[in-house]
């Protein structure tokens, strides 16, 4: 799959293509429907498929300080899109100047002049251009002038757990913020992941017999609510069942919020400086301050037992 940053990265001889445009944060199941249809339509037409996305998130440029928590960094989104069969991903730097492009100018500058769109596939709520003035009706109207078709893909509605809401990044972020990582996983189609470099912490876990990888997460990452979770820690290509702690470590009067993962039953791991990923499977309990260190150790041992069982059960079912 080709990865481009900016319009100037697009090959000069790029021919016609099927395009879909959006933030696509998380590449959740709703996004997968749209992107999958773009890939399918491209194959029907015998042309490549292109996903156009933005960096930073448009809201941060239009309303500074409003950057939403991110469900996945750009390189992860591109990997997920590649798995769906996408031929190229174009990341457009979203600047104040770019945000002022009218919907018509956006269509000409991006879809017509550079990507030579043969078809554009979008969700029903797609908006674009200055002040988000463009919609799918305008996109289709312009398609009659510039010889591209527009297809709208309806997003499936989640079941009772989501209150009948469509798959959405906003709902996924809310569930993660509430600690409902299983609900978020239902929308994403996989466990929610955070990633970053392992840095040195207070090393109290090591002293207590549960050495943890203290993960310095990427900026704007969507971090689950404080608590203990079952999941996996992946380092140097190895995926290990883990007990994950998110929070400020109230037992030791901590103030900084951290993500720490204990690789269950692993001894002697040296992870400092490595880029790792942490996948959240299930919420185990909230963050607590115990009366004694002994009662903390009993709780931690119980956490590890539950996390071992939860991850083993998940892996057995997949």
Automatic annotation (TrEMBL):
SMART domains given in the database record: Flavokinase (SM00904)
Ranges of residues in domain Riboflavin kinase: 187-312
InterPro entries cross-referenced by the UniProt entry: FAD_synthase, Riboflavin_kinase, Riboflavin_kinase_bac, Riboflavin_kinase_bac/euk, Riboflavin_kinase_dom_sf, Rossmann-like_a/b/a_fold
Record key words, sorted: ATP-binding, FAD, Flavoprotein, FMN, Kinase, Multifunctional enzyme, Nucleotide-binding, Nucleotidyltransferase, Transferase
Keyword Nucleotidyltransferase: yes
Chemical reaction(s) catalysed: FMN + ATP + H(+) = FAD + diphosphate; riboflavin + ATP = FMN + ADP + H(+)
A GO molecular-function annotation: riboflavin kinase activity
Enzyme Commission identifier(s): 2.7.1.26, 2.7.7.2
Taxonomic superkingdom: Bacteria
Keyword match Manganese: no
Pathway membership: Cofactor biosynthesis; FMN biosynthesis; FMN from riboflavin (ATP route): step 1/1; Cofactor biosynthesis; FAD biosynthesis; FAD from FMN: step 1/1
Pfam families with a match to the protein in the record: FAD_syn, Flavokinase
Similarity annotation: Belongs to the ribF family.
NCBIfam families for this protein: PRK05627.1-3, ribF
UniProt cross-references to PANTHER family, sorted A to Z: RIBOFLAVIN KINASE (PTHR22749:SF6), RIBOFLAVIN KINASE/FMN ADENYLYLTRANSFERASE (PTHR22749)
Protein's name in the database: Riboflavin biosynthesis protein
Lineage, broadest ranks: Bacteria, Bacillati, Actinomycetota, Actinomycetes, Kitasatosporales
């Amino acid at each position: 799959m080709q990865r481009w940053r900016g319009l100037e990265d697009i090959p000069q001889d790029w021919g016609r293509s099927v395009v879909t445009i959006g933030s696509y944060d998380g590449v959740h199941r709703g996004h997968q429907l749209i992107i999958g249809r773009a890939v399918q339509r491209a194959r029907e037409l015998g042309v490549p498929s292109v996903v156009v996305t933005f960096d930073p998130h448009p809201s941060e440029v239009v309303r500074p300080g409003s950057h939403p928590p991110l469900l996945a960094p750009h390189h992860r989104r591109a990997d997920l899109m590649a798995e769906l069969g996408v031929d190229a991903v174009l990341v457009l730097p979203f600047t104040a100047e770019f945000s002022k492009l009218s919907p018509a100018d956006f269509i000409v500058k991006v879809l017509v002049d550079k990507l030579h769109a043969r078809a554009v596939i979008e969700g029903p709520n797609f908006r674009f251009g200055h002040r988000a003035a463009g919609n799918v009706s305008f996109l289709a109207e312009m398609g009659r002038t510039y010889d591209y078709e527009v297809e709208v893909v309806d997003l499936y509605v989640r079941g009772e757990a989501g209150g009948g809401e469509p798959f959405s990044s906003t709902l996924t972020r809310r569930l993660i913020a509430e600690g409902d990582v299983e609900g978020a996983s239902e929308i994403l189609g996989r466990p929610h992941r955070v990633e970053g470099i392992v840095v040195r912490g207070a090393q109290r876990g090591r002293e207590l017999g549960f050495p943890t990888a203290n993960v310095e997460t990427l900026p704007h990452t969507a971090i689950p609510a404080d608590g203990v979770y079952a999941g996996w820690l992946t380092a140097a290509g190895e995926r290990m069942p883990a007990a994950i702690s998110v929070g400020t470590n109230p037992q030791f009067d901590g103030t900084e919020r951290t993500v720490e993962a204990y690789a269950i039953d692993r001894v002697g791991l040296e992870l400092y400086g490595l880029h790792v990923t942490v996948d959240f499977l299930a919420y185990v309990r909230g963050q607590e301050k115990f009366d004694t260190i002994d009662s903390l150790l009993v709780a931690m041992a119980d956490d590890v037992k539950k996390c071992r069982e939860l991850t083993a059960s998940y892996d057995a079912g997949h």
